[in-house]
Amino acid sequence: MNIKQLKYFLVVAEERQITSAAKKLYIAQPPLSYQLKQLEKEVGVQLFVRTAHGIELTEEGKVFQKYAEKIVALSISAKSQIHQIKEGELGKIRIGVISSCGGVVPNEQFKKLVKYYPNVSFAIHEANTFGIVEQLQDGIVDLGIVRTPFNLEGLNFKDFHQEPMVAVTREEFFERGEIKHLNELKDRPIILYRRFQEVFNRSFRHQGIRPFYSVTCDDARTAIHWADKGLGIALVPESIAFTYAKSKIIPVKHTNWITHLNLVWRKDREVTPLMEKIIEMF
């Protein structure tokens, strides 16, 4: 098994056709098919099955795909770091970001950094907080921008932004200018950004309120979109609301509903000069 075979495998898994994969890789079909057979022979399982519409991954193939992606990403990372040492260049920084930081990142500091160091480039990996932390542990990203709460074990962090939660809603669900008490949300359809379910439930439970979650989702932008379409009241961080919401944005006066954005990196990872510049920038 080698990196070239893994790259071939990933392109075929994405294209789902040998013909289109071969064109994308600029090679002929026979050598591509041969490399895939050699790979299957080495791992000892069938990775693909032929269908009327092309080829599909087997269950074993789907599992192998995840590992192949990590191995190829680590290979690229290793080559990149070696090249930086050899050439003395700043190169590329891999940053994992959550969707709900879009109202805060990138900021003016990023523009200043690129102005002074024009050869710096950014590889952005998007996931939720837990996914970003996992990518840090796997070495796929150098730095992560995540939102509290999360498990800090094995991580250094820098708290660089805090903001309240707000409600995004159409007029028919809430006409007032602000929410002063959580009782005002009682019996109203709430669109739940699942990331904060435990925080919300704890607050509602403390005040004896049983909330009605009309919609639950895993992305703040999705919650806002459904609120804009009149499906209920989305509770999301303030910055992402002002970035994406088309409906009314209502402040929520609740002291426990404050969220923080953190820059995180592994404690056991050597901090490169470029990483250090980014950390100082925050």
From TrEMBL:
Annotated keywords: DNA-binding, Transcription, Transcription regulation
HTH lysR-type domain segment(s): 1-58
InterPro entries listed in its UniProt record: HTH-type_LysR_regulators, LysR_HTH_N, LysR_subst-bd, WH-like_DNA-bd_sf, WH_DNA-bd_sf
GO CC terms in record: cytosol
A Pfam family reported for this protein in Swiss-Prot or TrEMBL: LysR_substrate
Matches recorded under SUPFAM superfamilies: Periplasmic binding protein-like II (SSF53850), Winged helix' DNA-binding domain (SSF46785)
Source taxon at top rank: Bacteria
The keyword Aminoacyl-tRNA synthetase is annotated on this UniProt entry: no
PROSITE patterns attached to this UniProt entry: HTH_LYSR
Molecular function per GO: DNA binding; DNA-binding transcription factor activity
CDD domains tied to this protein: PBP2_LTTR_substrate
Entry similarity comment: Belongs to the LysR transcriptional regulatory family.
Protein name: LysR family transcriptional regulator
